Amino acid sequence: MVRLLIGSALILCSAHWSIAAADLSAFVAAVGFDEDANLDGGMGFGVRWGKSTSLIGGETSLMIARPQRQLQVEEETATAIFYEGRLLVNIPTGTAVQPFVGVGFGMITLTSTDVPTSSDEALGDALGAVADAQTNKALSYGGGARYALGDRLNLRLDLRRYSVFSVKALAERALQDRIADELGTEIPGNLVKDKTVQYSEMSLGVVISF
């Protein structure tokens, strides 16, 4: 009986997936970064592709954002690359507006930035720890809505929240260890804060189905 139920579910999912329209979306976004990650908000742009307009859909998303990062007394521009897969559930309304919710999992890479020169070696090492390239796992969740502009064209609004693991902790741990080595003694207390930071995304794009 269990095998029969599983087999039936797979057949139904396969049939549903086969009739779902594939789609491609391009979008622009306002990306908010957690202040604990030493990043200011910035604009982003990206693409999504998959079968996200079916009742239960999936897609892959790639977005690039350009936040500012404070290093010593200067600001440097970093590049944040968001890449993840998502499971989406669409809510039928029978109208031109189709809400949806979804959850995703992937990676966020922050490229390294140029570190201002410093006569203080310990300070230079600390800045380097914060400025180095980092790749971290991220879980996202959110929702939005599509508005039908035609049979194959939709306007899409997304609101999404990212939980990014170990962005700040890695940099702070390296900073603490390097300063401790420089001083030749263990630093009392722990500089390492919460290992998870929160990013946000609000995006607007166009979806083409084919």
Main pleated-sheet profile: 8 strands, antiparallel, barrel
What proportion strand?
over 45%
Q: What is the name of the CATH architecture?
A: Beta Barrel
What is the distance, rounded to the nearest whole angstrom, between the alpha carbons of the first and last residues?
38 Å
Number of domains: 1
CATH topology: Porin
Radius of gyration: 22 Å
The percent range for helix content is 10-25%
Strand order of the largest sheet: 1-2-3-6-7-8-9-10
Report the strand count: 10
The CATH class label is Mainly Beta
Low-pLDDT runs: 1-19, 114-119, 189-193
Overall mean pLDDT stands at 77
Describe the structure.
By secondary structure, the protein is of the alpha+beta class. It has a single domain, classed as Porin (Beta Barrel). The chain has three helices and ten strands, in the order H-E-E-E-E-E-E-E-H-E-E-H-E. It has helices at 2-19, 121-131, 167-183, and strands at 23-32, 42-51, 56-65, 68-71, 74-77, 80-90, 97-110, 134-148, 153-165, 196-209. It has an eight-stranded antiparallel beta barrel with strand order 1-2-3-6-7-8-9-10. Strand 2 (42-51) and strand 3 (56-65) form a beta hairpin. Helix 2 runs antiparallel to helix 3 (167-183). The model is unreliable at 1-19, 114-119 and 189-193 (pLDDT under 50).
